[in-house]
Each structure stands twice: as C-alpha cells, then as structure tokens.
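Appendix B. Raw example, untouched.
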Amino acid sequence: MTVFAVNAERDAGLEREFEVFHLPGMFLYHSGAFHCETHGEARAKKLRYAIVSALKIPAGEAP
C-alpha cells in the first residue's frame, strides 16, 4: 500500500480538485479506481477497517 500525505495549505489545488471540506481526510484508490473517502482521526485500527470494508464494494466515481 502506498500512502501520500498532502498538506492542504500548501497544496490547495489538490484540496480544491478533490473537494476536501473536512480534515483529516483519506481518499482510497485501488488499481486506479476510487473506493471511498473517509474523514477523522487516522488511527490504525479504524483505517484498516475502513480500507478492508471499502475494498469489498465496487469502485465508484471519484470526487
């Protein structure tokens, strides 16, 4: 798994492109397909659950 961290203040273009309204946020892509967007505290257990759950459903339209 590759994780990219983006500083919303420094990278405002990405923030606008992905329509980020709540921080912290995570956008999960697998094999180029968008699966989910999550917001909240980045705790390993919660992130793992969110990722496993999101990958069980079909990919959707990216924000």
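End of appendix B.
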